[in-house]
Amino acid sequence: MKGSLRLNDGAELAYDVLGSAGPWVVLLHGWSGSRRYFDLNAPALAASCRVLLPDQRHHGDSARSPHGRHVARLAADLRELLAALQVSDATLVGTSMGCAVIWSYVELFGEERMSKAVFVDQAPLQNRVPGWDLGSKGCNDEASLRALCDTLNRDVGEVADGNAEGCLSLPIPPAVSALLRSETLRCDGGALGELMRDHTQLDWRALLPRIRAPCLVVAGGRSGCFPVEGCLFAAEAIPDCSAVVFERANHWLYLEQPVEFNSLLLDFVARGNAGRPKVARVADPGVCTSRIQDRTFSEAAVAKLRGAAVAQSRASASPRQPGAAVGRECMPSIHSTRMATVCASQLLRNRPAASPAAVPPGAAAAAAAAALHLQHGLHAAGPAANAAAAAAVAAAAAVARAAADPVLPPRPRGGAGGAAGPPLPLQLPPGVVADFERRLGADARSVGAALAAVTGAITYWRGLWALLDHFLGDSVAGDAACMLVGLSVILVVRLSGVRVADFWPSG
């Protein structure tokens, strides 16, 4: 449902409401964004929650008033909106500047209509001041603010491009990237500059210990905007607060890893911080709602992977490129070559060679996904296991390639009365197969390089042993010298900080 609210100063506030039942979740976008920034999150959340997405003043479809260019006005707008829609016991989710709006709301109005809060990648003070160097990595003093305002007055598009460069570490669908840029271009540069001037100097550190609602801090491990420690400061200061660090993601982590973020948010809405560690970390992007830990990888686990790939492709892919997201953020993290083997066997067992259409929905995608991330398993397994897994995945790739354009023909929709029929099948973009083959070749070269390195090391140490034996003889002194040499090499490697994984080609 789309709506608009006339606020007490006459300005219009645009909003969407998704979902018809369940607890309220309010998504507050950041500076220069809009409610469209949550296109990869809101539909999934709306399956079990009522989701409210306002365009904050000066953004999106909301008013561009000549006044109210400060965070406190945005907090007052939020209060009016919650009251008008009779929202209660809501989980307020702020991303970037949206966090400051929530902190201002709590300072001005307490915790009315709010049951929980989530703060995504924002330090409680953006400027850097004496005794505080955990603020913004970019706009953190008068000089950097003035430079930003000059750029905004000159070309908002330059700021939009800078946002994407500084806020993303993992790839997102091109259609989403274009949408983010277009939403920023809708903003008035002067209003953004004044809003940022107010936002950067606000210090919320003293407020945090007064928050009594359960809270969750989510930080990007590769954030281009804030150091992780700056975001985690809030988790330490708020009495009932936990934190999760998305180690490979940036400031826009909810766009880079939407499935993991959605799952985390739904879990927090349902049970708060019960049973949650103070700080947890999400290491890799993937399609599953939680990382698979079962190393046996039963058929049920593969079915879960396949279903998640189908669901995420529907949520993320653009109409012109069905399933395009499968090649990007939807690929699962495979921490064992066993997953690739099972995916391949599942695919081959369920598809007769003469019938490409018999491939189960998403099965080819699951196999290709396993292949694309096989290097995670290769780094943890030995050469023999690598070779076996590579052979299994190669077989899966052949089937995936045969069914790749498209994987399955569209199924007819439903019966009488417009009822929905079986789920639409997943279409695998041809580029996924090409990328799989490239990565598989790189992994094969990685195995060869490892074998060559091991052979060289054995030969080298055999020669060194013979040389020491020649000079020192078979004596206690010779044995002691060999031990000393070995310990010296280990010490040098240890002090150099080199990790074993660094010897593997990146693929």
UniProtKB/TrEMBL annotation:
Superkingdom, natural source: Eukaryota
Task: Provide any one GO MF term from the record.
Answer: hydrolase activity
This entry carries the following GO cellular component terms, namely: membrane
What's one Pfam family the UniProt record gives for this protein?
A: Abhydrolase_1
Q: Where is the AB hydrolase-1 domain?
A: 23-139
Keyword annotations from UniProtKB, A to Z:
Hydrolase
Identify the InterPro entries for this entry: AB_hydrolase_1, AB_hydrolase_fold, AB_hydrolase_sf
Protein name (database record) = AB hydrolase-1 domain-containing protein
